[in-house]
Amino acid sequence: MALLAALAGVCLAAPTAAQPMPARKLVPVDLPLRLKEVESDPRLGANVIRTGRQVAAFCAHCHGEGGNSLKPDVPNLAGQNPEYLIEQLRQFAEGRRRNEFMEGLIKAMSADEKVGIVMFFANEKVAHKPAANAALAARGRDYYNKVCFQCHGQDGHGNEHFARIAGQQPVYLRNTLQHYRDGTSARVNPIMSGITRPMSEADLDAVVAYVSSMQ
Ligand code: HEC
Ligand code: HEC
User: What sections of the chain are H helices per DSSP?
Assistant: First the structure.
C-alpha cells in the first residue's frame, strides 16, 4: 500500500501540481499479467479492488467521484477498460505520456494499487451528458460511423485493446485529438495521428460533440 502510506499525511487537502508524490523504488511487476491474475481470482480481486477504492478517493480530487470527472479537461476514468488504463499508467511512469502530477503519483503506487484502481474504475458507470448541440453531434455521428467505430466500437466502449471514448469529457477529447493530429505532446501514437491528420477543426468539433454525448 505504497501510495496509501505516502498519502496518509498529505492527501486530505486538495493536491496541487507543485506537490508531486515522492518517487519510490519498487520491484518491477508485469502489470498486464498481474491484472489477469487478479481478474481470474474473485477473492483476491475483492481485496485488490478494496485497496483501489481507497486510492480512488484521492484521484477524485481531479477525476471525480467514481471516476466521473467534473472538470471538462480531466478525463473520466469510470467505465474505462482496465487494460487500457494499465497501459496509460505505464506510459506516464515511463515518460511516454507527460503530466508532471500524474507521473509523480504513479511512481508512488504499488502494482496492486494500480491494478485495484483500474478494476475499481472499470466497474463504475459513466454519467450520461446529452449533446448541447444536436445538429453538430449528428454530423459527428456520421464521421464517427465512417471512421472511429472500427476500433472504438459502434457504441464507443472500446475493448481490451482500445480506449472507451463514449461520454468522455469534451475539452479533454478536443485537446487529446488535437495533440495527436498536430504532434504537440509527448503522447505520440501513429494510428491516432494517421486518423486525425485529415480532420478539420469543424470535424473535430463535430466528433467531440457526438462522442462526449454517447452513453
Ligand atoms: C491534480 C489532478 C489529478 C489527480 C489528483 C489525478 N489525476 Fe489522473 N489525470 C489528470 C489529468 C489532467 C490527466 C490528463 C493528462 C493528459 O492527457 O495530459 C489525467 C489522466 C489520467 C489517466 C489517463 C486517462 C485516459 O483516458 O487516457 C489515468 C489512467 C489517470 N489520470 C489515473 C489517475 C489515478 C489512478 C489517480 C489517483 C491515484 C489520478 N489519476 C489522480 C489529473 C489528475
Ligand atoms: C485503427 C484504430 C483506431 C481508429 C479507427 C480510431 N482510433 Fe482512437 N485510438 C486508437 C488507439 C490505438 C488509441 C490509443 C493511443 C494511445 O495509447 O495513445 C486511441 C486513442 C484514442 C483517444 C484517447 C483516449 C483517452 O482516453 O485518452 C481518443 C479520444 C480517440 N482515440 C478518439 C478517436 C476518434 C474520435 C476516432 C475517429 C475520428 C478514432 N479514435 C479512431 C485506435 C483507433
Answer: 2-7, 31-39, 42-63, 82-94, 100-107, 111-122, 134-146, 149-152, 170-182, 190-196, 201-211
Ligand 2: atom nearest CA of 203 is 38
CA distance 191 to 90: 19
Do the beta carbons of residue 17 and residue 61 sit within 8 Å?
Answer: no
Task: State the pTM of this model.
Answer: 0.91
* Domains of the chain, each with CATH number or no CATH: 2-122 (1.10.760.10), 134-211 (1.10.760.10)
**What number does the ligand 2 atom closest to the CA of 173 have?**
29
Task: Report CA(172)–ligand 1 centroid distance (Å).
Answer: 11
What is the tens place of the pLDDT at every residue in 151-198? 999 999 999 999 999 999 999 999 999 999 999 999 999 999 999 999
- 16, 59, 124: residue to mutate for ligand 1 pocket, most atoms within 8 A of CB: 59
Rounded to the nearest whole angstrom, what is the distance from the C-alpha of residue 135 to the centroid of ligand 1? 31
Q: Would you say the CB of residue 99 lies under 6 angstroms from ligand 1? A: yes
| Beta carbon of 44 within 6 Å of any ligand 2 atom | no
Residue 10 pLDDT grade (very low, low, confident, very high; cuts 50, 70, 90):
very low
